[in-house]
Amino acid sequence: MNMNKVCFITAVNDEVKYEECKFYINNLEIPEDIKIEFVAIRKAESIASAYNDAMNKSDAKYKVYLHQDTFIINKKFIYLILDLFKNNKIGMIGVAGGRGIDDTGIWSKFSEVITRVYDTGDPGYIHLLSYGKIDGQYEKVDIIDGLIMITQYDIKWREDIFKGWHFYDASQSREFKNRGYEVIVPRQDNVWCIHDCGNVDMNMYEENRKIFVGEYIKENM
């Protein structure tokens, strides 16, 4: 495991978006002792399978799993995540998440949402999604959104049960928490990311929601 490397991992099906994503990463401030690398997985059957493939290809201790349409705009990003990861209890960091989920499994509608990210959910418009107050350095959450998921430990993604592009993030959040790690959303004095997602493909959303509920919610109720 290379303690001085940060790997940026992306499932790619739009080369133009991915090049823009890399443009922002290449303009980050990088500590002298840190190397960065890119791992792109193309023609993946699911995000979970893509992320497992990429995880196994890289020896970096720190891995940043991000969508091809996530653009990191805070140039101090690497310094900020490395500072947070000095706490070895923190397993995974995101910029949008929620505390408390009900038996639907949909954290963004039925939990205490803690989010700070620029979003283009309405095509042609960019707006700040900012919910929840973080008084300290971070807040612990139950689930983070998959737009960006930053880890300092390798835990296998559940490609065995999740196909397609939904609920892999909720699943991985639970996998980290089940192993005793904290999943957090940090205080962002300067916003870290833009998520240029536009309209979201909802194919297989409901199928994966039911799988998530069966695997992680019902067993705990």
From TrEMBL:
Domain of life: Bacteria
Gene3D superfamilies assigned to the protein according to its UniProt record, in alphabetical order: Spore Coat Polysaccharide Biosynthesis Protein SpsA, Chain A
Name this protein carries in UniProt: Glycosyl transferase family protein
InterPro entries (UniProt xref): Nucleotide-diphossugar_trans, StrF_dom
Pfam families documented for this protein: Glyco_tranf_2_5
GO molecular function list: transferase activity
Domain Streptomycin biosynthesis protein StrF as annotated: residue spans: 7-216
Taxon lineage: Bacteria, Bacillati, Bacillota, Clostridia, Eubacteriales
UniProt KW keywords: Transferase
